[in-house]
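pls ignore typos typing on phone
zinc ion + seq
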Amino acid sequence: MSHPGPASIKHCKNCGTAVRQRLPDDGDTRLRAVCPACHTVHYENPLNVVGTVPVWQDQVLLCKRNIEPRKGFWTLPAGFMEMRETLAEGAARETDEEAGAQIEMQNLFTIVDVPRVGQVHFFFLAALQSPVFNPGHETQEARLFSEADIPWDDLAFRTVKETLRCYFADRSKGEFELHTLSIS
Ligand code: ZN
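k done
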């Protein structure tokens, strides 16, 4: 999972001319990246990040990142949604790519808005089918953590930290529900 800053197109995708931020002519009230040469308006919209909370007995699977940003920090398996896949398909794909984990997908668990960077993160609960993992190149190490061992200070992203907090809070209540959060 990568977290670029707010999207910013520098050059026209149509003709390569440097774009200007201005109001389009059609009554739109937001600044857009507009090409001064061919007049193409480049709309930039939030991206979906999809992932899972993979659980084995009383432990949760975390991946130690092998790529920037936040290389060496721990994350839940997650990444950008691709075209032509559903949220759940994307979450399963990322879990396979980053952890090589066999899972059974369960309910959507957290929806986390991150308006500052133009992202919405979706995490699903997932039941691990085995405690054996085969992480891909984006991951240094994939391993299970009990609640007491979660490396809270070495988590890669706040969306992951908040999702794990929700998970352990719900588990202690014995009831899992959908959480909607916003991180500024
Ligand atoms: Zn252009």
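The chain has two helices and eleven strands. Residues 12, 14-15, 17, 35, 37-38, 40 surround zinc ion (CB under 6 Å). more later
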